[in-house]
Amino acid sequence: MVAECSTEESEAAQQYQRLFEEAPVAYHEIDTDGTVIRVNHTECDLLGFTAAEMIGQPIWKFLVADDQTASRQRIARKMWAPEPIPPSEREFVRRDGVVLTLEVYENRILDHAARVVGIRTTMLDITQRKHSEEALAQRTAELMRSNAELEQFAYVASHDLQEPLRMVSSYTQLLARRYQGTLGSDADEFIAFAVDGAKRMQALINDLLVYSRVGTHAGKFQAASSERALGSALANLRAAIEESGAVIHRGPLPVVFADPLQLSQLLQNLIGNAIKYRDGAPPEINVACEDAPREWRFSVRDNGIGIDPKYAVRIFQVFQRLHNKKDYPGTGIGLAICKKIAERHGGRIWVESLPGQGATFCFTIRKGEGDSK
Ligand code: ADP
Question: Is the CB of 335 under 6 A from ligand 1?
Answer without folding.
Answer: yes
